[in-house]
Predict the structure.
Amino acid sequence: MSSATPDHTDDTLYKVVVNHEEQYSIWPADRENPLGWNDAGKSGKKEECLAYIQEVWTDMRPLSLRKKMEELNRKNNP
């Protein structure tokens, strides 16, 4: 049975986590972060954390891709 049923209230406290590629996710606040993920400084209900991610994660591309594209742009537009 899915936990997303209409009669289920999610009272879980979450935290926002971020990895080395500046990608964001939410994680239960009472659990240790997954390997490679660090606290982003925001915790709360799921909706609050997702709203925060939507506000701060404005470029979905991984950091390594953004850097590579910037490097190519500099080479092509000296």
